[in-house]
Amino acid sequence: METSGCLVNCGGVPVHITFLHPGTAKYFRGCLMQESDCDAAACAGSEELHVQCTGDFLEENRWLVGCQDVPGEILEFHALMLAAGSRLLARRRAVFHGAAFCWRDLAWILTAPSGTGKTTQLVHWIHTQGRDVRTINGDKPILDCSSEGSVYVCSSPWRGKERYGHPHMRVELGGIIFLRQGSTNTIRRMEAEEAVPLLFAEFISSRESAEEIRQQADQLDRVMRTVPVWELVNVGDEESALLTQKAIGEYLQSRQDRQIWHLRQGVTLVTAAGVYLLAADRSAQRACDSVCRINETGALIWNMLQKGAALPAIVSAVQQQYQAADARAVEADVKNFIAALRRKGYITRDVIMPERSMY
Predict the structure, then answer these.
(1) Which residue intervals of 89-201 are DSSP H helices?
(2) How far apart are CA 254 and CA 267, in angstroms?
(3) Mean pLDDT across the chain, nearest whole number?
(4) pLDDT average, residue stretch 200-211
(5) Whole-angstrom Cα distance, residue 63 to residue 135?
(6) Is 11 left (phi over 0), alpha (psi -120 to 50) or beta?
(7) Where are the alpha helices (DSSP H) in 89-203?
(8) Most CB contacts within 10 A, which of 27, 122, 253, 333?
(9) Beta strand 170-181 with 106-111: parallel, antiparallel or unpaired?
């Protein structure tokens, strides 16, 4: 049988896929890459991520499609998901079973065993939040744990029969919602000891070796140390989506209260003739302007950022200093100033301090 192939974007990693069935290629449209699209880090050793299914592998994994009488290209498409999922683990990526979407600039994953209502929940989110929701992947996104700090959710070719999602999306993971069917709608945070076994089962790989299993566990460990997991018992209605939105909104508020910023080394706050300046030394000038004028309020905020203060403390200090009554307006001004510092390069990154240890 004549073979064909392509280069596919799997969570930022170029995966060379060779097909037994040429018709399989059409399922990867939208996720294709060119060699020129690969940055040096992603493409280093990319030849090691050449994936091809043998005829025996297809037959061994026919259970993936749930029936015997399916075209070979469909069976191959699903088997390639399993094969790629195994190979990606070594690159600190994982194919994960769930519906992923972006809301409030973070990615959220609805996960559960098949048939529990992930797509139904996703549709409820779209109906209740409209354009504020962007679908990343309707079925099996890729988790990217390669960066220090945050975990990211990426599009994958395996988007489910509805084909929900957009190619080439990569969004920081905010949390995971594990679904159960029930007679009422309730939501609660899960502890690690109950969430880990359930989530481990939702990683997609062939688990052909102990090393592969350990790699999968490492990915899950990173997720559990980074984001919360909720259990949503639901009847499958829009009220359950609204309940989840309320729980996530409360979490995001607490997350904001724990956000601190790292300032660029080599930047000093100085005054001259009553004017406040942020002045960068020679090493810092490679990443930010050599000098930036700020006002007295900006100087107060900068000093608090240096002390590791979180947003509520900064807002409170600005309110007290200037006897401002409108806390929401002050918070908006503080956020805008911090955002401007980030754009100019004076803030290198932000960190969310953990609520508590999951372990």
Answers:
(1) 118-129, 192-200
(2) 30
(3) 88
(4) 92
(5) 27
(6) left
(7) 118-129, 192-200
(8) 122
(9) parallel
